[in-house]
Sequence to fold (437 residues):
Amino acid sequence: MIKHPISKAPIDNSVAPTLIRALGTLDLTAVGINGVIGAGIFLIPATIASILGAASIWAYLAAGSVICLIVFCFAEAGSWIQSTGGPYVYARNVFGRFAGFQIGWMTWLARVAGLAALSNGFAASLGYFWRPAAGSLKMIAITLLFLFVTWINLIGVRFGKRVINGLTVAKLLPLFLFVAGGFFFVDWTRYQTMNLQQISRLGEGTLLLVFALTGWEVAVIPAEEVKNPRKSIPLALTITILFVTVFYMLIQLVAYGVLPGIENSATPLASAANVIGGGLGASGITLAALLSITGTCSGLMLAGPRMLYAFATEKDIPFLFAHVHPRYRTPHIAILVTAAVSLFLAYLGNFAQMAALAAIARLISYVGVCLAVPFLRRKITVDGKRFVLPGGWLIPALATGLSFWLIAHSTRTQFALALGAAGVGTALYLVSRRNRK
Fold:
């Protein structure tokens, strides 16, 4: 039985403020949905349609099934260990300090690179309404987004969760209207053209969509701020992936059925919405894209700093990052540093470069968690309060194998970026190790 999953550095609660448990199941679900539904769904229907045509909706089901296996591993690990850090603390309990730090470092890197990528996407979407935002004033638009999401996360997790919940509703509503209204415009004869040649490329389309269905893992990181983590974390993760998979399938169904030539559209959902509701529909979907990106960035800014907080409490990085604001009860130093690094990367790279870095970093952290689950089972006492997967090693083994398969299909550029990032993390760890001694 794990008596103390992570041996935190001692903090005198009489003088040092601590994190508060303010997140419930619905809050975590909103964080998870925000983590997944970012900019991708507004662009990816065209790419999937070009690969699979009328069979494209089945790729969403296949990708969702793959991701579900990984989600279940996170759900089981999250029901056992309630310390802030998610993959970091899961891997560290099994593989030791250095391996745990590397997994955690990749998890933090995925959050930071994701913020950088999405902020570039935000500026591009804002350019639909205000052209300079995508051109000469792009850096200003990115900076304003960072100021907003940093501020709402600095002033307290309770306020931050309200903003995330509100943005979740605000960005989903136009998409719901797109699906509901679009059903009346779908040309169902387009789905009669499905053929075996299209279905033969199902694996290619599934691989692409697996990357689009990541981001839900942000819900496991702020575990010390969850009211009932053993129950809330598994339930929120399961609801998130099931909801997003079905919702994405419906969006693809409408977009492909409404828009002939969707394969060649640079803005497939906006173009389909223009068919359904004219200019007002296109503007509504573009606004939804802006809200979606803002909500996802807010969720990433909630989760990313908690990784630095977890590192610091274990003295893997300077303890300064574990400081909690006396009034707002948030890890304010970690938030500010995460924001600064993300903003620097946003200035330095573009959407595609940062998205590639985030993708490979996520997959590495997935492997660490999936491998850790069977070993964690040996350290706990199974009881009715814990979520335990059926089938013994089967689900973790399948999830691990699929994660390695996805990593093997990454590009050389992604591998090079990941290796470089791992090198930076190793250097920081070694410096901190020397300081600990």
